[in-house]
Design brief:
- 2 copies of one chain form a homodimer.
- By secondary structure, the first copy, chain A, is α+β, with helices and mostly antiparallel strands.
- Chain A has a domain of 89 residues: 3-Layer(aba) Sandwich (Rossmann fold).
- Chain A is built from 17 helices and 17 strands.
- In chain A, helix 7 packs antiparallel against helix 12 and helix 8 packs antiparallel against helix 9.
- Chain A is globular.
- The two termini of chain A are 48 Å apart.
- At the A-B interface, helix 1, strand 1, strand 2, strand 3 and helix 4 of A face helix 1, strand 1, strand 2, strand 3 and helix 4 of B.
């Protein structure tokens, strides 16, 4: 007999949690679809050759590897072998680490049938052997949308629109969509005469929210940057409203840098497409993200009232499919919502209240066993009207039946005993007010429909 | 550079396939919910101690095991060790093999919070290291519903109802719901004086559909059963309509067997609950399924017009949670749809045609780049009316844009060039008929809505 437990860093999603997750995912999926994004799903297992080398050394360590089946040690000399050299010999598959590499792999495998621009969304779990801690799981859900095969800034503009629609639908009001452009970051480093330190500088400035400018400055100084270099960077590393006047300011700051041209014209184009950008969109010079990967605009979204980190991020990339041998360079852009963080944020802001549908609308309570057939008949009629209906499976004591109804949040009970059977009437109980009334079977649907 | 490929026995689900899968899953989920079933999701990874010993020796071999992270060989003497003894030392987790054991594990872990009867559904992939072949995959989806904590025959009746509702919703007409009861099988063996061979007999009769009575008879004879024993079993192993007259026949056949009593009274009760059972419900004396597991009614559903095996099965069990240390015996019953087989059957019967929604309803085609802002503005208005809308991301040649629309099955295109901008009119093209008309922006939504 085994004691029941689940692996560290994994979770069961109970019905109550699932209802809230479905609320979030349903809105995101509907909004993705409203822009013509199409669903894709890929296998949980990928060949390790697909996964390794894409996430850096540290990432490779965090991939869950699956033991080959059968006699996997056959023909392997285990003498003097360590885990690191043994692993590739006994494990050929691993669990998906993100949804982006599988997308690239899918497009590379199906290049002849995939119509460009290819707009796909993908909502699936990913697995990382990270040390579990509060808010960090070994199995967690990503919710990605990507457009492959066009470098039009319409995509950037659409994603800004999508962000706004999603947060409106979820009832989240106080959020910030941060945008930056890799070319502007490069131009700023160029102007500060610090191109050699580009990568270290982006790592430092990405911490702005955590350690403030004073902390970033110290890191820049430790890289060998002098005061004047730091001051040049400081002018750029500011959060400004994403509007024409901000673009003018940046144009003045970076006018002498050729690298800035592409970034500024991209941003100007996005602005011309988002004719009613709200003040929730911010041009954040300190936003860097994983720059190895991104080549153009980058996004990050935070919710202001909760200390939960970013709930979404994304950006434009140019080389994704080339790692799988595609000769043409396919430009792409994508965003990803972290559902677990969105969930935690909405819980903290108490935004789920009243938004998830009841598990069951009506419970039929048989007061004696021979009431069951009539209960079943009426329940089927309600179901045909899209009313979620259960029959309590036996004529237990009414209190027990109503306890069940209350635990499940059911708002109406229909009581049927010998009296009801004899008089061909029904007793309908509103479980919120406690009110009870008698009605004819024919009137049941309209009475239930009128209950709040 | 790695060549793109996916593991044997796994699949990508392209947008076209996903649309059809969502059609199936959406109906099943809606119908489960209409009976008050609640969603549950469990982790892909379970501790191996949870999984092993639940699926028999052969099943244990088919569990995908996950390599422990870090230096998993530390403190292990690999000298003279074989794969079988090494595995438990280097792998503590495995991938979910079905959805039933995780359910039992969940209930055992949460017994204090789970309200009985507990009605849950679960739609998730499972993994088995089976030899891949046509229709058999290493990653496939199950779609389960179970009721735990009641032995009422209402559950059996509800599941028969659910089957009928699901097949009606999917447009599948020619199906058969087969039902049998373990107690009747036992009574038949008892009457044939062959109780000692019970397990082997059920294995033999379960093949009735494949090898017919002649084949089954041969297997029974090889077990040592004589002609009169075979004849007694043969009377029982017949498919009969599930109605009162069939129950009378069985009552006569098995009247002297005490074991039959419970089975017959259960079936009679189910019949009293399903007052309008169709002739699609069959009492099939040869239906046995995995009897180690089931203790009461068993179900199997087949689609008559396709040779695809059963698309769903299930039954009542009594001991599920006891393996995880729960002292009380919780009676349960569940069914499971095999989504992959349902999908294949519906493809074969051409039942998807016209049933999946378009990826995108309307494509805006900018004929020059400065038409993009107006396209974007109008597209957002359509989206607010629940019309799925895309803007082609650049002013490519009209043919290219319309090729994209056709490949994606888009039925309406709105063309905007300098002429349209100057006259403030729109050109709307019906991509099915080829018809094109001019309209005012204000009339666009009503024109689109009227298109078939």
């Amino acid at each position: 007999m085994s004691k029941a437990s689940i692996p560290q860093g994994t979770r069961d999603f109970s019905p109550e949690v699932m209802a809230k997750r479905k609320f979030i995912l349903g809105h995101i999926e509907r909004i993705y679809q409203s822009f013509g994004f199409m669903a894709l799903e890929t296998p949980a297992m990928e060949n390790l050759s697909t996964l390794t080398g894409k996430y850096g050394n540290e990432g490779d360590q965090l991939i869950f590897k699956i033991l080959n089946n059968g006699d996997y040690l056959k023909d392997i000399d285990v003498l003097n072998i360590d885990a690191k050299s043994l692993t590739p010999k006994i494990a050929e598959k691993g669990l998906r680490y993100d949804l982006t590499v599988p997308l690239a792999r899918f497009v590379a495998m199906n290049r002849h049938t995939v119509q460009l621009p290819f707009k796909r969304y993908q909502i699936q779990p990913v697995w990382r052997a990270d040390r579990p801690q509060k808010g960090r799981y070994r199995e967690f859900w990503q919710c990605d949308a990507d457009v492959l095969g066009t470098d039009s800034m319409l995509c950037e503009s659409d994603f800004i629109q999508i962000y706004q629609m999603v947060f409106t639908a979820l009832g989240i009001e106080n959020y910030q969509i941060r945008i930056n452009h890799r070319a502007l970051l490069e131009a700023a480093c160029e102007k500060a005469n610090a191109v050699d330190h580009f990568k270290s500088i982006t790592v430092a400035i990405d911490k702005m929210d955590k350690i403030a400018w004073e902390g970033v400055e110290k890191e820049l100084q430790s890289l060998g940057l002098d005061n004047s270099q730091c001051n040049i960077l400081a002018q750029f590393l500011i959060k400004r409203p994403f509007n024409l006047s901000t673009l003018e300011t940046l144009n003045e700051l970076l006018s002498s840098q050729t690298k800035a041209t592409k970034g500024l014209s991209d941003l100007q184009q996005i602005l011309s497409f988002c004719n009613n950008t709200s003040d929730r969109v911010i041009l954040d010079g300190s936003l860097a993200r994983g720059l190895d990967y991104y080549t153009g605009c980058i996004f990050e979204v935070i919710i202001n009232d909760v200390a939960i980190g970013s709930v979404s991020g994304g950006g434009r990339y140019d080389e994704l499919t080339s790692v799988f041998g595609l000769k043409e360079a396919i430009s792409g852009i994508g965003i990803s919502f972290g559902i677990d963080r969105l969930y935690d944020a909405m819980e903290a802001l108490q935004l789920f209240s009243g938004k998830t549908p009841a598990f069951t609308d009506v419970l039929f309570c048989p007061m004696e066993d021979n009431a069951l057939p009539w209960c079943i008949e009426l329940a089927n009629e309600l179901r045909q009207q899209q009313i979620k209906t259960e029959v309590y499976p036996q004529s237990s004591k009414l209190k027990k039946q109503l306890d069940y109804a209350n635990a499940k949040g059911i708002k109406a009970a229909v009581l049927i005993g010998s009296n009801e059977i004899n008089t061909k009437t029904l007793s309908v109980k509103n479980l919120i007010t406690g009110e009870q009334m008698t009605c004819q079977a024919n009137d049941l649907i309209s009475i239930i429909s009128q209950m709040p």
